Amino acid sequence: MRHTSFVKAICCIALIKYLGLLDAAPLIPLLLSLILTSDIDLCLEALVVVSWNVSCRDARIARCIRAEVNLTISHTVAPVGSPEAVFKDRAKSLSRCVMSLVLARAELTGAARHKNLLGCHLHICSENNFPTGAGLASSAAGYACLVFTLAKLVGLEGDISGIARLGSGSACRSVLGGFVHWHKGSSPTGCDSVATQMVPASHWPELRIVILVVNSKQKMMGSSLGMKRTVETSELLRYRIAESVPSRINSIEEAIREKNFRKFGELTMKDSNQFHAVCVDSFPPLFYMNDASHAIVNFVHMYNGTDVQVAYTFDAGSNACLFVLEENLSNLLATISYVFPPGNDSVEYLRGMPVTIPHVDKSDLKLGMEPKEAGLLKHLIVTRLGTGPQVVEDHLLTTAGDPKHLARETTLGTPWV
Amino acid sequence: MRHTSFVKAICCIALIKYLGLLDAAPLIPLLLSLILTSDIDLCLEALVVVSWNVSCRDARIARCIRAEVNLTISHTVAPVGSPEAVFKDRAKSLSRCVMSLVLARAELTGAARHKNLLGCHLHICSENNFPTGAGLASSAAGYACLVFTLAKLVGLEGDISGIARLGSGSACRSVLGGFVHWHKGSSPTGCDSVATQMVPASHWPELRIVILVVNSKQKMMGSSLGMKRTVETSELLRYRIAESVPSRINSIEEAIREKNFRKFGELTMKDSNQFHAVCVDSFPPLFYMNDASHAIVNFVHMYNGTDVQVAYTFDAGSNACLFVLEENLSNLLATISYVFPPGNDSVEYLRGMPVTIPHVDKSDLKLGMEPKEAGLLKHLIVTRLGTGPQVVEDHLLTTAGDPKHLARETTLGTPWV
């Protein structure tokens, strides 16, 4: 007897960034944060195969688990501050932890199938088609995917964002679509620190997201470890929590409801900058943005002039997420392609949604916009607001529980559907 | 009749950074700041030749003035916010402005020689032996030098830091040696915003300064324009002014008086980081530090481990100033030379004070300290606390008023005296 489920999860991009976790064990944000979810073309895929009565499948399980570990190894999924030894064997404890949570929750809600799962073997395979450990919330998408899949398996209905949060703080945001709130909650256990949808993706269908993946040799610090350091050492964070974020959350909500791109863009950029400011104010300082990121920021401000046609945000990494309205997308992409020419090894420079790009030459550009050195960007991914995790038909594991491709090629070049 | 004066001025390095000018016209800092001055080996040289009864020397004057402009053109010396047109012809207005101030002050204090100067021609020649426009306060050193020289010319004695401030905000600090306070003052005209010496250079003779000049193609925004933007747009600056700086000033003063290097170093690094944090929080954000600067910061923290043997500070540029005690200098330099190998075009990689450097190889280094790509740093300059501007014997102009070398070679390679 075998049960399979396959889910594509979404990547989420913080607009007003939650920086800082209140407490270690239950991952609760210091702040309410507002998140935009991007569509499934920027996705993480997970398959869980649960097999019964199969003895001695250890070798295979180890292989499958390894695939999952590949995703999360660059992130700190262990509760911050807990003894490291406990989470040394991360893969197993992870599976146990999340699974037991799902089982507990299923029992609580009287879900039908959980009892059949006791004592079973879990084959987990996870792949993602965007860079991990690069501040694009891959671990969040991974956990959201895993929890969503497990919930489907155990027949758990309803809100699973609280469970997802226990795996990776921001994972609770990835289980929903559109614009999402991550609430701080008031319970010390974190049980009310959940995500809720502010507006669905259909509210602003014209909004486009362009991810600029930069070429970087730099090793990044995992975002959870970084956040811990910032909470402990940044003096400026106190001001950010007390003053800046609360007023910005209100303003950006208003901007989203009104679909006021100028206001939305300016607040998003300012909050991204302030997030990185408190990272720099940490001790030792955290530098997530690099020279390529700085070049993108300067490009956006030069492109905009006194208007706001495009806005940037950077999570805990050097890659940029740009926001732009559909009507301005093709001109933006054309200008980016001119100013940031691809390197020699850039195949499929432009990925995601297909866009017709007009020809741009120097005379179309603003004064001072010169092409940068080739290859500063690895590639661009065009996407739009996400609609949340979805069960899809494709599988990552064979019906025997073996991974189909341990190192599958990226699927980002495939046409948008 | 001819009068000449030649002065070497000092470069100053802000420890607790004053960021933000209260008002445009009289350059008054928003904050009291504490500055360390470095010795004259990191110097700016200026010569003023005043010639009488010389008709039609325009061509020569133009050449001399041009040399002076070369120094200041990359800086905003015009009062921030004033109509740009007024300062279009920067060289002339500059000379006039500073000269008239010196004359006025001389008149006020009854200095003897000022009347002889009326209607004379000024030949000004200025050279510096460290990078301009790179956040090493070259314009401050330049103005300090010019004002000090002019004061000598007109026979003005006593405090000239208030006059120097009118040229470049931080120039008032460069006219003194040792550790210097720049006071905010309370007068709206800025007349009491002057610099005073906290302790002379002789207080901490063991302190060494290592300037790491990074290879950078990046164009920097002038520090005055940048500060204006930060004051106008950074929300975090308010917290910095109200909370962080006042307490840090007290603590670092204590650390300096006690010669407590650990405390001194930690505060210096934290304040540098916070300064750059509020720069990043500006809108559009200001990125003075680049990938090379980040590599230096990470290097220092790795080198220190749990101790503080070396500390960094970055002004409005990508170059680093490191502080270290004499006893640890040679090991630090050896490690830097290993981790940051010189590029092919680096001549005289190590400049300034002569230091015997022990051999270092990989086994001497801490885990994870790998050599970076060659040429990340252009060169290193070793110096110590400065003793203030000094009249020296060498001249930049011939007695006829012509510049000796319009593009003179750097003298930084010459032995320390």
Automatic annotation (TrEMBL), chains A, B:
Which UniProt keywords are given for this protein, alphabetically ordered? ATP-binding, Cholesterol biosynthesis, Cholesterol metabolism, Lipid biosynthesis, Lipid metabolism, Lyase, Nucleotide-binding, Steroid biosynthesis, Steroid metabolism, Sterol biosynthesis, Sterol metabolism
Q: What class of enzyme is it?
A: lyase
Domain Diphosphomevalonate decarboxylase-like N-terminal: from-to ranges: 11-195
Q: Which domain of life is it from?
A: Eukaryota
**Which InterPro entries does the annotation name?**
GHMP_kinase_C_sf (IPR036554), Mev_decarb (IPR005935), Mev_diP_decarb (IPR029765), MVD-like_N (IPR053859), Mvd1_C (IPR041431), Ribosomal_Su5_D2-typ_SF (IPR020568), Ribsml_uS5_D2-typ_fold_subgr (IPR014721)
Catalysed reactions, as listed in the record? (R)-5-diphosphomevalonate + ATP = isopentenyl diphosphate + ADP + phosphate + CO2
Q: What's the EC number here? A: 4.1.1.33
Domain Mvd1 C-terminal, chain residue ranges per copy: 209-392
User: Its annotated pathway?
Assistant: Steroid biosynthesis; cholesterol biosynthesis
Q: Which family does it belong to?
A: Belongs to the diphosphomevalonate decarboxylase family.
Q: What does this protein do?
A: Catalyzes the ATP dependent decarboxylation of (R)-5-diphosphomevalonate to form isopentenyl diphosphate (IPP). Functions in the mevalonate (MVA) pathway leading to isopentenyl diphosphate (IPP), a key precursor for the biosynthesis of isoprenoids and sterol synthesis.
Q: Which NCBIfam families does the record cross-reference, listed alphabetically?
A: mevDPdecarb
This chain belongs to which protein, by name?
Diphosphomevalonate decarboxylase
Look up and give the organism this protein is from. Answer: Dryococelus australis
